[in-house]
Structure formats: structure tokens, C-alpha cells
Amino acid sequence: MEQRGKPPLRIAICEDTEPDLENLSNFIEGSGISYTLDVFTTGEAFIAEFSKGKYDLIFLDVFMDVLSGVETAEKIREVDTQVVIVFTTTSDDFTREGYRLNAYKYMIKPLMREDVEESLDLAIVKRDRDFGVTLEILSEGKAVTILLNDIVYVESRDSRSYIVAANGEEYPTATPLDSLEILLTPPRFLRSHRAFIVNLDHVDDVDEDFIMDNGGIVYIRVKDHRNIKNQYDDYIFSKIRSD
Using CA atoms, how far apart are residues 87 and 97, in angstroms rounded to an integer? Predict the structure, then answer.
């Protein structure tokens, strides 16, 4: 099911019924994929630990006490619009909610092995679309390879380029921004300012400038503000449509 050399699929299960949890866990274990698994029995416990990009796949029980699966999914989507959400339930009454929250699948209990494995395959395909695409640079005398997914933005200052990564690291390089722009191509990457290249996948909000999911600010050229914002809107829309 999974190709060698890829990282384990990061899975979370939010399920408050022990037999259903055991059944789902057994199907995942028997699938043969490489994975990590976090288990939660309440939506509140899950949300307390959740952060953007932490998981590739989330299985959510619709019927949970206090914070339901639908309410949990609403809170997830406030933070992460891309993670694969799969609802598990005893009823199909919430199908419309699944569409509204961009759930990728809706599985009726008792769960079937083929449905679980289809969900795993879907999450792997989505994760792997950009996996392995890297940028190789020389930073402070050392060769560094960075996944394009992990680049939040690139900033030019003090005659150097600084690649800011999702792990909090900042990689200085003598490679000028003009050269990096050739390697970091649209539509995902955008030269928004003479001193910045932005990864649109890491944009949290946009106003006068881009507000990034790591808290950083990426400037937008004033004279091209409308055009750049339109490019961002088009990119987000195309991703939602393709998903």
C-alpha cells in the first residue's frame, strides 16, 4: 500500500466506544502501512492536543458526549483546512455536515476493513502529492536539503536570503532571491515583494500583508496588492476544488 522511504502516516482516532476503537485500531494495524497513532476518547481532549499539520488523517466518531464529532471537526477546520477527516457513525443523518466540513469519507459502523484501508490510501495519496520535492542549498558552509512543504517563506535581508522553515529553523544562504524564485515556482510559491517569496500553503490570513501560520509577516507590494491577493484566492480555490 505504501512506498518505501516515506514517513509513517500520522493518524489520530477520536472515539469513545471501546469496541469500535479496538476494531478500527486492528484494521489500521493489519493494513501493513507504516504509521503513528494517537487515540483520544473525547473531542475536548483531542482539540487540546491538536495543531495544524500534526496529523495526516483523523478518524472522528460523530456521536460523542459534550463535544460531538461534528463540533470537533468544526474546531479542526478553524485551524487546518487540509487534514483528511473521516467520520465514523451509526447513522448517515450527518452526511450533509460531512460535506460542509470537507470530510473525505463517511463510514457507517460496524466498520469494514475495505473502507478503513480506502481511507488510509486516500490520506497517503494526499500526503505524498508533494512529498520528496526538495530544495538543496548551501547554508553556512553546509549542504542542506529542505522539503518544499516545510518552507514557510524566504526573506532577503543584509545581502543574504533566509529560508524560514516550519520547524522554526532559519537557513541563511548566499543564493539571491531572484535565483530562488526560479526554483520556487508558482502557484504554490509567490514573489509577493522584492524581499519575500511566500509559500501560500502556510498562509494563515491575509490583510495588508500575509500572516503566516508560524506567526511571521510576509510583505505584499502595495502597487500589486490586489493582483497578489487574487492569485492567493485562486490558489486556495483550486486546492479546495481538487480535494
Answer: 10
